[in-house]
């Protein structure tokens, strides 16, 4: 139901009552519905016409809205008919002049939904709305899908290179009685909105990253926020957005798992309900500033801990952090166990991409009972960079999709694996079946240096008919020589921040050797 306000009061409604407070709905001169539609309405429906046309106009304008990259502009822009509009008046005039027929069609759709004419009856209809009824799993999932009949099908699709797409990143820890039903609903919802991506569901909650058009992602967020299971534990700010689209993922994958993020420890043993203390980006920024100031004078009792994998922290990290040289988050518990004395009587500031790994990661560390305090960055690096793009996080933010990384600042903290030149753009190893990521600059790529290690580089030179090509393993030499669980306590001096491969020259040509960088003292 569009609103809980009587439609025949539409002439006197404030814009906020329509839930479109950011649009200038009062200027009815710009709304030019056809008189033919109104003439065909009965007396009771005509009373709802003003309400319906304003909402239809607002919805149409909303679909033309897009936000540029965070560093470029935080103000709203609208794009329609290959024109860019920087103010509401301009887009309103354009829509009124060029898209009256579409607005009229949307108005008719809204009028069909308004089957009552008084405030009391509208409230009763809201109570009958299936999205507000108790969740019953015998109900078909289609009853929980948003109505998209008012929209042009092309508006729900995003094309590669277009301006109208984005990627959503979110998670929600909550108890789910029937994750399989939620899985079926999520699959139907994403397909309904032409979204791609990955959604993990478990009895402990949901974790998703999906891409599509801005209209599709907006409808997805609205569906999530109105769904009975999630509406009390999710808010709009829990969804992190970045420029992208459906093309950022090869397909849609929705499944039920034991954990919504694979830490390798049963939720029954380490629960999300006992995490570290959440710090807002501003609070975390102050703590990092204090930590770096103390570190200069060797007085800090704090560890700034990166909970991500080594290839994530390699291209971007907080200054002075400890970034474990682990390949998977499922290695994190073993890392803590092996280095538990490192955290004794320490204050630990933890962070990850969006916050989800810190939820149970901090719970695991707290359960060891050795830390003074354990804190975690709420919303992760994603939310921190929205507020502090030039803060203490340097380099790019790694993401698990076809983009590989997001850029919020111009810092490059990693190097080409072959020549050592500043470089932070990942590519997959060129050797078939190897899934390692490699940093190789354009100059080295031009020389054919496109593999992750010498072994893979040699395999790549073999004839395609070589039978050994069919037996490649994902974990090649560069992984085999890296300890699965690093022992930080064995380091004689400062702890490594993250491994950065650096070339050496041997008799048989260039090879990759790992070098550990110490935390910055700046």
UniProtKB/TrEMBL annotation:
CDD domains attached to this UniProt entry? RHOD_YceA
Query: What Pfam families does this protein's entry cite?
Result: Rhodanese, Rhodanese_C, TSTD2_N, UPF0176_N
Instruction: Spell out where the chain crosses the membrane.
Output: none
InterPro entries, alphabetized: Rhodanese-like_dom, Rhodanese-like_dom_sf, Rhodanese_C, TrhO, TRHO_N, TSTD2_N
Where do the segments described as Disordered lie?
Answer: 487-522
What residues does the Rhodanese domain cover?
A: 298-393
Quote the PROSITE patterns the UniProt record gives: RHODANESE_3
Q: Which PANTHER family match?
A: THIOSULFATE SULFURTRANSFERASE/RHODANESE-LIKE DOMAIN-CONTAINING PROTEIN 2 (PTHR43268), THIOSULFATE SULFURTRANSFERASE_RHODANESE-LIKE DOMAIN-CONTAINING PROTEIN 2 (PTHR43268:SF6)
Can you say what this protein is called?
Answer: Thiosulfate sulfurtransferase/rhodanese-like domain-containing protein 2
What is the organism field in this record? Erinaceus europaeus (Western European hedgehog)
Record lineage? Eukaryota, Metazoa, Chordata, Craniata, Vertebrata
